[in-house]
Each structure stands twice: as structure tokens, then as C-alpha cells.
Amino acid sequence: MGDGKKESSDMHNRLAHVQDRLRRILAVLRDGVIIIDCDGVVTYANPAARLILAWRDEPQGTKLKTAMHSNDKARLPFLEQNGALAAAIRRGEVVAGTEEISGKAGSSLSVECLATPLYEFGEVVAAAIILTDISERLLVEGALCEANTRLQRVNDELKKKNERLQEISVTDSLTGLFNHRHIIERLQEHVSSSTRYQHDLAVMMLDIDHFKKVNDTYGHPFGDEVLERISATMRKVIRVVDIAGRYGGEEFLVVMPETDLQEAVGIAERVRRAMEELTWERPIRLTVSAGVAAWQPGESASRLISRADALLYEAKKAGRNQVKS
After folding, report:
1. Shortest CA distance to 258 belongs to which of 272, 235, 241, 270?
2. Nearest to 275 by CA among 290, 265, 297
3. SS3 of 296, please?
């Protein structure tokens, strides 16, 4: 009998010791901890919870909703829905939310709330409400988000500038067509592709008739205007798949992928007619001549250009304003 009493006393002492240790741990936690029973009555609140909620009075034994109304500046709607919260806890549900409250000296706190049921012998007997001040974390996340936004903006600007530099590096500044180096590179790419896949390929060499006379008579500014309009007109007339470039001076090269000689000549004729129909502020009539050549298996890009150039020379020699193939 005496042994039973001693054993019960020892168990009680150990339990008291464990409870004391638990209270000590809860007392030094930075997170607020509130224990409520199934009726929503506060049975425990650690110092961090009272600090976060700015509770001056001891809340133990008070309905949570009543305790929440004791400080108008530290209101948490999440906790004030006492009936809904208690009902959810009785059902064994975990409830979570985030709230903004006013702290000391008018400061604002962001509080993460988590209410979880506590069980005894398989039944819900209470709930633990954990309050975590996440204000600093949100500030850091906000600063990181802002920094990432700024970084993304800088990256976007750099990308645009790089794209512009790339465009400038391959474009003729006056006409907006590809420059000599790039149009040759594109032709070489298509010669390689045609060699590999046995596709048709054609090129057109085009030259503005009597352009030197236009420059000498009306000056270089008007000559530049002519080059710009000729280039713009050519872009409108050729197909989307065709690639036009300024070969040099008043001479242009058009690469026509997967195009046979007959189709290429038709495109060149459309370009020639479009140039012939242009009207100018000065009393002139401008025409163009063109040489069209179809790629032959094993032929290099330079050899293909040479043949088109020779055909252009034939068109000039034959009276200009015509296409030779």
C-alpha cells in the first residue's frame, strides 16, 4: 500500500517536473503559444503571445474572443471567429491564416497563425495556437522580390541592347537590308542546306540603272533616298522566305530558298516592274536590271554569285530594265 502511494507520488512529481520544463521552454520561445479548450477559453498564453498581441491582462480563464477585444490595436480576425475556430478544432481540423496587426509604437506586424487540435485518448480536448511574427521574413522577401524585379528589368534592357547590337552588326544602316557580310553568310548557309537535302536554290543580283547619273545630277542625299525606297519596295515585293541584302553601292543580292529558276525569274520580274512604277519628286524614271541564277549541285556560293553577276551584266548590256537568266 505504501509502495503504491510512493509510486503515485513519484509519477506526480515527474509529471510536475515535465510540465515545469515545458512551461520554461514555452516561456522562452519567440513564437507565441496559446492553449484554448474546446469552448474557446484560454488556458495558457506564453509571454511571446502576450507580447505579440499586446495583452496587458492575464488572459487565462477568458474566452479567446474576449481576450482579443481587450486591445483594439492588436486584432486578429482569424482568432476572433471564436465559434468557427472552436468548431473546426472539435472536428480535428488544422486551421491556418496570416494577419496584419498594429504593434507597439504604431509598428505593423505580420503574424502567421496556426491552430492545431490537441488529443487525449483519441478525443480533441484543446487546441494549440501558434503565432509567428513573420514581419522580418516578409521584409526580406519583399526586398528580394524588388531586387529580382530590378535585376530582371536590367536583364531585359541588356537583352534588348544585345539584340539591337546584333541587328546593327548584320544590317545595312541606310537601307535596313542585311549588309554584305551577312547576306553572304546566309547564302552560304542555304548552299550547305541545298547540298545536304538537294533543295532548289536561286539568287538574284539587282542593280539600279544609271544610278551614278542620279547621284551626279541630284546629289547624294537624293541618291540615298532612292536606295531607301528601292530597298523598301523590294522588301514588299519579294516573299517572306526570301532574303535581301545590299551587296554594295547600288547593287543588291536576293537569296531565294527552295526556288527553281522559273519561279525565281518570276519574282525578279515582279521586282523589276514594281521599281519601274515608282514615282519620284524629281523628273526621273528609275529602272533596275537583274541577273537570276539557279544553284547547281556542287556549286559554291561565290560561284553562284559570279554567274548571277554575269547575267546582270548581260541585262545591262542588252539595254537595262530587264531580267536575264
Report:
1. 241
2. 290
3. coil
DSSP 262-295: HHHHHHHHHHHHHHHT---SSS----EEEEEEE-
C-alpha cell at 38: 474546446
Does the domain at 31-133 match CATH 3.30.450.20? Answer given as yes
| Amino acid in position 258 | E
The answer to whether residues 135 and 109 touch, using CB atoms and an 8 Å cutoff, is: yes
Residue range 171-324, CATH number: 3.30.70.270
Helices (H), the chain: 2-28, 47-52, 64-68, 77-80, 82-90, 135-170, 180-197, 211-218, 220-237, 261-276, 301-317
Q: What is the pTM of this model?
A: 0.60
Q: Which residues of 131-141 are buried (b: 16+ CB within 10 A; e: fewer)?
A: bbbebeebeee
pLDDT at 65: 72
Say how far apart CA 323 and CA 262 lie, in whole Å.
12
Q: Would residue 100 show up in a list of annotated catalytic residues for this protein? A: no
Under 8 Å between Cβ of 31 and 131: yes
Please pick, among 250, 251, 277, 314, the residue that the annotation labels catalytic: 250
pLDDT digits (tens, 9 = 90+) for 241-277: 999 999 999 999 999 999 999 999 999 999 999 999 9
| Gap between the Cα atoms of 214 and 211, Å rounded | 5
